[in-house]
Design goal:
The chain is α+β, with helices and mostly antiparallel strands. 31% of the residues lie in helices and 35% in strands.
Length: 95
């Protein structure tokens, strides 16, 4: 998937993304830095943990991300779908 584009100040963008992540079910922010976030997302039924990392690239005005299952097995597209939803919620909040 392509990085998430953004407009606005880095602080505004970061807070908007944090709000989206905090509202997403079974999601916990485990590390916050000025240009980096690490998040754990748990699957609904089996409670598997997926790690999501997001990096703010202020020069390119994009958020790069990576989402992967800790088990390394097929997730039936869950990671991709989650990132599509997070992206849509973030962009729906204004870009």
């Amino acid at each position: 998937m392509e990085p998430i584009p953004y407009n606005g100040s880095p602080a505004e963008v970061r807070e908007r993304l944090l709000a989206v992540l905090r509202s997403y079910p079974r999601t916990r922010i485990v590390r916050e830095e000025p240009d980096y976030l690490k998040v754990e997302c748990r699957s609904r039924i089996f409670r598997f943990v997926d790690d999501v990392e997001l990096v703010f690239d202020d020069e390119a005005r994009q958020i790069h991300f990576r989402s992967a299952s800790r088990l390394g097995r097929s997730d039936f597209g869950v990671n991709r779908q989650r990132m599509k939803e997070i992206r849509a919620a973030f962009l729906g909040g204004g870009s």
